[in-house]
Amino acid sequence: MEAQLQVNMIVRPLTPFEQLVCEHLCDGLTNAAIAQATSHTEKVIENTVSRVAQAFTLRSNTEINLRVLLALAYRTHFGDRAFDKLNLPLQTFTDTSRWQ
Fold first, then answer.
1. Domain segments of the chain: what residues?
2. Buried b / exposed e across 28-64, counting CB within 10 Å, b at 16+?
3. pTM for the whole structure
């Protein structure tokens, strides 16, 4: 049976703390690392991840990891700020002849 990915629009605004947790989650940090970075307990982070998943109406299943779904939903809704952290100038390709 093929897994289907469904990303829903967010049903409520995220708090600044929820957004911070999501940014860390998208960077690949574990709950323990997020807890340490934010000076909270792992339980607070687990609850926050759960609330954000509910805000995106996401449910985990055996075939798709909830954290991956949450990262995809967050990046889809808020954009990918990972490139901003690299401090690289944005360049566009105008010479498409190289691609042919």
1. 16-85
2. ebebeebbeebebeeebbeebbeebbebbebeeeeeb
3. 0.70
